Amino acid sequence: MLGNRDFRARVRDSMLFEGLADGDFERLCAGAREIRLGDGQRLFAHGDPVREFFYLSAGRIKLTRLSAEGNEKVIDIISPGRTFAEAAMFLGDVGFPVNAQAVGACELLGFAAAGYLDCLRDSTEGCFSLLGRMSRQLHFQLEEIDRMTLHSATYRLVAYLLDQAPSGEQRSELRLGMPKHVIASRLSIKPETLSRILGRLAQRGLIEVHDSQIVLLDIAALRDHLLRDSL
Known about the structure:
Layout: H1 5-12, H2 22-30, E1 33-37, E2 42-44, E3 52-66, E4 72-78, E5 83-84, E6 99-112, H3 113-121, H4 124-150, H5 153-164, E7 172-175, H6 180-186, H7 191-203, E8 207-210, E9 213-216, H8 219-230
Antiparallel strand pairs: 1-6, 2-6, 3-4, 3-5, 3-6, 7-9, 8-9
Helix pairs in contact: 5-8, 6-7
């Protein structure tokens, strides 16, 4: 994968690598390993030692925790072009705080955590660059917490669908790329509640639902729905 110039440029522009010196980036790439996972295959488990962080190039990865009763809660869904498990590098010997599992076939790159930390130790500029990017990510996560705790299930689902739509479009066809029960868990919604909300939005002429494909018929009206819900 890293032999492809365009793909290499996309990796270079991701949060963890953008602030690194060229030589540091090249050394990390030289030691990266390519990983391919089948649907449902686990990448790592909660508590496993942190030896790598990852860049997802294809597929979806769900990050989960198990409750005391054994119920799975989806913490995040990683889409192509994102790095993940980077924060775990700074936790010492605690291990990964979540489980990571493929949703569909996935292709990833694994980068050595120790090598990346060595790069940061040698570069004050790289440390500050990473700190700024992780601060922005924290701000985004706080907005996610706001969504989950202060807004209705309908708001959370509509916001999720709009996040998938290209900017500037008034109509968009989305392929979910993962089972609806996984999305429901990510949004802290019961699967049956998610189905009811989709049905109500379809009845109002805002969306069409075709199995794993959802057509957003009126994006402006959906955004107006969010505005009314937030007041």
